[in-house]
């Protein structure tokens, strides 16, 4: 049995590669072959992958064949969709690149979408918008839809009204470690359905999933940008103000250290800014009334509010250009008193000396709190806040790692023990013990038991790994 987080060095010979190539329709690439670099390309340049072989899956049959090939040789299986959150370098693994499996089909009568395992949010948002519908989507248009749902899916615009994205998954098509296809729902293999929604890629390769859409065409959103010297008064005022917002409104505060580049709006270029991010699924008039107290806190250096089509939802959050090297860490917080705000300012505020490009504190709550209608393995539902630190300066990676660690340590007194899997950083090393704390003992033990039934050899271990019980 191979259960370690890595894998023994493996070199497949030509006969192995030819055998695999004969079983799949997509391209198969060895480390010295053409197409290998493209098949292994990640969005985060600090997390390269070096598998024994890479398979460009064109459909579920290719996925089944690749998994069976790996199982016959007792090799781990790694999955690459977009390359945002690669945890292990996949050495000695069979890598399945899902990018060719990106079809999206919307059923406007049922109000659902079926997306393949390699679909990204950009295509899904566009397909849903064509029917006046919207998913419980994330803050980036380039992130993979399947991985977002498997890790929880905390939507910065829809989450407080509708809960986690995982709560709205209706069916998951997955290939197990035995190379068998399963279609799981709340009534068909309910244990596996529970585990997949929150357990990430520990239980198989998701080839497609179906989830609910909502009749949302537009939202009102954008941001207020304050000069750095107003960071403390804005953060303290926002902390009190945001807890009174209705669930159709969402907000976060971000400390931004903006580069001096032409792509950055001139008022922000080369500056530290405090960015109050806000969105509302209600009317513009209701949103403006809600915003009025925060507009009075201090002068703004820029504003960016507008009524927008929901397909442009990610424009509120300043997506970084990709690919690039970055480090990040995140935590969920039980509460955020004045003392926590002061600790955050000391660690990442304008006078902290921090080099982190983004530090964002988001208010959760609403439908993200409490049990969902269909239970899932998503932890941290009683947290009230989430905190993210991000740095993408390739010349200062060691410093950024030190500072992002200092950031999460600064808020440790208010940190929730549980953490939504999507918030685990790519380079944040986890053990079964740390994951047990993150999920909570009861939830983790159930996940490990289900893992033991569906992947007893732990083939799916190139991730934040839950070993089989």
Give a short summary of the structure.
With 469 residues, the protein is α+β, with helices and mostly antiparallel strands. It has helices at 14-23, 36-39, 60-72, 121-129, 145-150, 159-162, 190-199, 231-242, 284-295, 338-348, 397-410, 432-439, 441-454, and strands spanning 28-29, 53-56, 77-80, 94-97, 104-107, 112-116, 169-175, 181-184, 205-212, 218-227, 249-257, 272-280, 300-303, 306-309, 327-333, 358-363, 385-391. It has 3 domains: 14-97, Uridine Diphospho-n-acetylenolpyruvylglucosamine Reductase, domain 2 (2-Layer Sandwich), CATH 3.30.43.10; 107-215, 2-Layer Sandwich (Uridine Diphospho-n-acetylenolpyruvylglucosamine Reductase, domain 3); 218-423, 3-Layer(aba) Sandwich (Vanillyl-alcohol Oxidase, Chain A, domain 3).
């Amino acid at each position: 049995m191979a259960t370690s987080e890595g894998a023994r060095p493996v070199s497949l010979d030509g006969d192995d590669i030819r055998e695999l190539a004969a079983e799949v329709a997509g391209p198969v690439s060895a480390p010295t072959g053409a197409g290998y670099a493209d098949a292994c390309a990640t969005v985060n340049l600090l997390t390269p992958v070096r598998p024994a072989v890479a398979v460009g899956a064109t459909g579920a049959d290719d996925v089944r064949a690749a998994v069976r090939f790996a199982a016959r040789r007792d090799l781990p299986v790694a999955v690459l969709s977009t390359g945002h959150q690669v945890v292990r370098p996949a050495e000695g693994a069979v890598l399945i690149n899902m990018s060719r499996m990106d079809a999206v089909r919307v059923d406007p009568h049922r109000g659902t979408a079926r997306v393949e395992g390699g679909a990204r949010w950009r295509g899904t948002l566009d397909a849903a918008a064509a029917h006046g519908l919207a998913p419980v989507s994330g803050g980036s248009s380039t992130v993979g839809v399947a991985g977002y749902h498997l890790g929880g899916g905390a939507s910065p615009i829809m989450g407080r009204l509708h809960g986690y994205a995982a709560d709205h998954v209706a069916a998951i098509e997955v290939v197990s470690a035995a190379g068998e296809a399963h279609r799981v729902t709340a009534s068909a293999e309910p244990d596996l359905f529970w585990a997949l929604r929150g357990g990430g890629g520990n239980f198989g390769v998701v080839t497609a999933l179906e989830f609910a859409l909502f009749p949302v065409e537009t939202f009102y959103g954008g941001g207020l940008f304050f000069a750095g010297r107003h960071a403390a008064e804005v953060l303290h005022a926002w902390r009190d103000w945001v807890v009174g917002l209705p669930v159709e409104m969402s907000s976060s505060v971000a400390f931004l250290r903006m580069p001096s580049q032409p792509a950055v709006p001139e008022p922000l270029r080369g500056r530290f800014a405090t960015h109050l991010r806000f969105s509302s699924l209600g009317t513009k008039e209701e949103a403006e009334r809600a915003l009025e107290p925060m507009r009075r806190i201090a002068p703004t250096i820029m504003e960016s509010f507008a009524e927008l089509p929901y397909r442009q939802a990610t424009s509120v959050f300043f997506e970084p250009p990709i690919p690039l090297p970055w480090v990040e860490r995140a935590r969920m917080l039980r509460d955020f008193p004045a003392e926590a705000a002061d600790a955050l300012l000391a660690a990442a505020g304008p006078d902290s000396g921090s080099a982190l490009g983004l530090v964002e504190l988001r208010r959760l709550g609403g439908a993200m709190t409490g049990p969902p209608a269909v239970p899932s393995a998503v932890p941290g539902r009683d947290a009230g806040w989430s905190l993210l630190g991000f740095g993408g300066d390739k010349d200062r990676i060691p410093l950024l790692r030190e500072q992002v660690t200092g950031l999460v340590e600064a808020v440790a007194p208010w940190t929730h023990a549980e953490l939504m899997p999507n918030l685990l950083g790519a380079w944040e090393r986890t053990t079964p013990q740390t994951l047990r704390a993150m999920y909570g003992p009861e939830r983790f033990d159930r996940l490990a038991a289900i893992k033991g039934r569906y992947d007893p050899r732990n083939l799916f271990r190139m991730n934040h790994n839950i070993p089989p019980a």
